[in-house]
Structure formats: C-alpha cells, structure tokens
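Step 1: inspect the first sequence and its tokens.
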Amino acid sequence: MWRASGITNELQLYCTAIGALVFAALMLFAGWFHYHKAAPKLAWFQNVESMLNHHLAGLQ
C-alpha cells in the first residue's frame, strides 16, 4: 500500500509518519487558536469588505 504512494523504505515511512503527526498537531493548534473567545463573530465574515481585507492582509 505504501509503495503505491512512492514510499520505498522504512525511513521514508517513518519520516512521513512524523511529518503527519507534526502537521496534525499544527492543525489542532490552529483550530484552538481560531476558535478562541476573541475570534471574530460570524457577521464579520459575512461583511464582504472585512472578508476581503482579511484575505488580502496576507499579501502585504
């Protein structure tokens, strides 16, 4: 099964598993960070100008 994904030895499998665990921990932290009490309300995301500014802020 792993060979079909291009993983051919145990080191690659180990590194992939560790990477997946790190990514899962990062996503768990991001979820906790995103849904804390100071998070913007739903109405903020429904405001088109606010949503556009939110997404364009990453380009600066």
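Step 2: inspect the second sequence and its tokens, then contrast the two.
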Amino acid sequence: MIISNKTSKVIVLEEIIEKDANDILARYGKSFHWARRFLGTKASDQSTSLYAFCRYLDDIADNENNLDKLLKVKNFLIKQDKTYSIHPYVDSFVRLSKEINIPKYVPQDLLSGLISDQGEVLIPNEASLIRYSYQVAGTVGLMMASVLGASNQKSLAFAIDLGIAMQLTNIARDVLEDASNNRRYLPGTWCNNIGPKEILDCAKKIEEKETANISSAINRVLILAERYYQSGITGLRYLPIRNHLAIGIAAIVYRLIGRRLMKQGTKWWNGREVIGSGRKVTHSFLVMTTLISRFKKYPLHNVDLHIHLREFLNEST
C-alpha cells in the first residue's frame, strides 16, 4: 500500500495536534487529565481534542479585545468552508463534530457565551448566571455526552447540569481573578451589585462588610452548584460503565474545590483553591458509591433546573 506525500503530511499534522492537545489538558485541565486515564483510548483522544478546542476559544475570550476573532470562529463553524483554516484545533473539532454528530447549535451557544465575556461583565441575577453557565459549560457537557457514548436522549439534560455545576465551581473559585479582568459573575442581587474594582479593593480589606457579602454570595453559588452536581452525577447512569467512572471521578474532584472553599471559610481573597494529587486519589474512590445507581431505574430529570434555559433548549433536552 502506497501512502501519498499529502496523506502522510496530514497524519503527521494530526499527531502533532494530538500531542499539543494532551499538553494543554495536562497544564490547564488537571482534574480531567487525572480522570481521563480511566477512559478508553478513543473516548480519551476525542475528549482531549474537544478540550483543546474549548481551551483555544477560552484563551481568545480571556482577552476582551478579541470579539472579531470569536465572531470569525462562529461564522466559520456555521459555513464550515473547507477552502481555508482558522486554527488546527478548530479543524480538528469540525472533524470530530461530524464523526460523533454534535448538533451545530451547541458550539454556537458556546461561542455566544464567550462573546458575552468581551468587555465588562456584570451578571445581574441567578437566571442570567444559569444561562451563562449553560452557554460556556453546559454546552461542553452536551458535546462530551456525544464523545462518551450517551445514546439515550434523556441523558443530555444531566450532561448539561454537570457542565453548569463545574462552571459554578469555576465562578466561585475565580472571583478575584475575574475581578482583575473586569468581570463579576456573582449575581448582582446577591452581592449588592458590587463592581469588579470594588471586589479588588475588598480583597485588601478583609474585615470590611462588603468582603463578607462577597463570601456570602460565593456560598450561594456553591450551594446552587450542589443541586446541579447532584443531578449531573445521577445522570452518569446513562453512560457506559467505564465512562461513568471517569467522568464521576472528574466531577467528584472538581466538586471538592467548592466544598473545601466553603469549609475553610470562603476566603476568596486568598486566590484559587487547589486540590493536591493526594486528595484527588483518595476522593476518586468515592466514585464507587455512584455505581449503585446502575442497579436502579434510569433517573428522571428535575425540570426546574432548566427553567431559565427555555430559550436555548427544546423539549428533548
């Protein structure tokens, strides 16, 4: 069998992209990088490719002057013009989305959420918080469901919930970092509409009343996250058992970030809460308790969790 020079170049390029994606996951997605080793080879490679694509978009969105770049990617995904390429990770995602039938509206919703991050961000209320969390993370849950072999349509609502839960953890963990980027994802109705610059000032005056109000708002975000974690973890029942274990581990380890933050007094001014390798290993064993659900009936989704998402989701999700 003769392999053309063009074909060999494509194979080499794909190998380079795969290695880069693995490096990105190891650096930025430590919780999932740990859990990924429990996946099969195909699901592991596909999920890593998906993560690299999402990370690429996230890095663009982190710069508030990149609106044009995000719009360019959004338009490219709509047209999927094969005559040019934006970035290898985008090309890899397009191939993956066709292979596993990711609906086109899902990455569009993701990009709409990231586009909303451009400029100052002030989330007004809980409804807006849930909608934003769906856009930037619930969508990732939907795409991961396709990667992980969730064939039952009813599983999708639970996949969205796990994505939302993890995003709420991110928001609670990154209050100080987000404020430095002129963003406040804590609902204004929960924190007296404090602005990002005021949050930065409060971090230097930890005895101030407003500092305690921020801690209280963070606690409310984490309590809300627990509802979505409970739903998302319950929905792991729909996955093949190996994928159930891997995603269960990722969820449990990520959930621990918020729980430790609350346990230690929600001292958000100290910066990010980090989970060490030892805790990741010991808490990973807790995933075994979730396997009990596999001997029960498939769970019904709590529709109240999606009451703010009707503009995005149809009845099937």
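Step 3: confirm your contrast with the notes below.
The CA atoms of residues 34 and 277 lie 9 Å apart. Confidence is low (pLDDT under 50) at residues 1-17.
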